[in-house]
Every structure is written in C-alpha cells, then in structure tokens.
Amino acid sequence: MLANAAVFVVALHKNYEIRNGISGGGDLLHRTAEYMAAETSKSTAPVHVVPRSVWEEDERDDELRHEARALAEDDMNREIIKRLQDDGRMSFSRIARELGTSEATIRNRVSRMIETRLMRVIAVVDPVSLGRTSYAMVGLTVAPGSDPRRVGKVFADCDEVTYVLFAAGKFDLMVEVICEEAEAFRNFLLDRCYNNPEIASVEPMMGLQLLKSLMKWGRP
Question: CA-CA distance, 189 to 19, in Å (whole number)?
C-alpha cells in the first residue's frame, strides 16, 4: 500500500512556533507553584501545580528549537532541505555531488537536522485509499486549571490523531482525527474527549472533501 505513497520532508520554519514563557526558568516556576499551593492549602479554591516534567520538557524543547534555528540559517543545510523536499529518497551521495561536498558531511547534517526537529522525512499515505473515510478536526477547550500542553500530549499518543496544535483563540487545542468509519470517530469523541474531565468543551468539524494538502510548507 505504501508503494504509491508520497515521500516528502517537512522543514520547520525558523519563526513557525512562538513560545510564551521564560527560558531556563522551569525550576523556579515549579518551586513557586509548589509554595503557592502550600500557602493556600487552607483555602477551598482549587490550586493547580504543573508537574516538573512539563517544565523540563519545555526547556529541552527550547534548546532544540534554538539549535534548529541556527541550523536553518546555514546555506548548505537549506540546499539539502530543498533537494529532500523535491525527492525525499534522494541519496546522500547525489546531494553531496551536487553541493560539492562529501557524503559523510551530508549524512551528518541531515541526522542533526532530524535530531533537532528541523525536518522530518516521512511517507504520506492517502487515508481514503486505506479505507479511513471519517476525517475531522476537533476544537477543544480545556477546563479551568488544566494545562493544554499536558492534555495535548495525551492526544498526541492516540493512533487516530495525526495533528495536534496548541492554539491561541477560540480553542486551546486543535486535533486532526482520521478514523476508519463514523462509529470509530464516535467512540473517539466519547472515550477521549467527552469523558475527559480536563476538557470543558468539544466542537467536532467533519471533513467533507480535502481540497488542498500542501506538502512543501516551510520551504527555505
């Protein structure tokens, strides 16, 4: 089934993601949250403390993001990305010949760009050809006191989910879901969304026809 799959590279634009927070301040923020929770323990008002792992993951993400931006500024890396976006199966030896460098240099650069999440080389399959006919975007608003990042990570682990976006606007999270049939999507909504106490509202938006799917976004 993957024989006719389109192979492409997703290159993350250096300004694609805007983070709201303080880099390197995870421990301080966590200790402050713990102190506030202890001081208000006599109050009936709910106090939410973000787990330490969330801050640590954010700090690691920041480090990778900064390195990815630096790699994206390199002219040779940009040329490598362009070629892999045109043909994700292009050999490192061919890229090396075209750019006048060694195969080992290309291999090392590609590996580092993948490690820092600057790009990914993946196969894209038409879900309809695989019998998955139920496609939807689901807008989620998390409950007061819940962390959208933690809720988003739960959905990121679901097999039916192909896209999770932490957003600013009407919804806290946008989740793309592709299921084999309507009943499977119904079960997803009931089990993953409506029965989740950290989600305050759910707005499913069923897809009727995919008019455009851009596979070369982030082109350098």
Answer: 29
Last residue of a domain, one of 80, 100, 125: 125
The DSSP-derived string for 121-145 is EEEE--TTTTT--EEEEEEEEEPTT
The answer on 110 and 73 residing in a single domain is: yes
Confidence band for 56, pLDDT divided at 50, 70 and 90 = low
CATH number for the domain spanning 159: value is 3.30.70.920
Over residues 107-135, the pLDDT tens digits come to 999 999 999 988 888 877 767 667 777 88
Task: Determine whether 155 is exposed, middle or buried from the number of CB atoms within 10 Å of its CB (0-12, 13-18, 19+).
Answer: buried
Q: Read out DSSP for 25-82?
A: -HHHHHHHHHHHHHHTTTSSS------HHHHHHHHHHHHHHHHHHHHHT-HHHHHHHH
Cα separation of 65 and 194, whole Å? 34
Together in a domain, 119 and 174: no
Residues 89 and 170 in one domain: no
Do 201 and 141 contact (CB within 8 A), yes or no?
A: yes
- The residue among 210 and 30 whose pLDDT is bigger is 210
**CA-CA distance, 22 to 55, in Å (whole number)?**
10
d(CA 187, CA 2): 28
Whether the per-residue pLDDT at 28 is higher than 50: the answer is: no
Instruction: Specify whether the CB–CB gap between 176 and 127 falls below 8 A.
Output: no
pTM of the predicted model as reported, rounded to 2 decimal places? 0.54
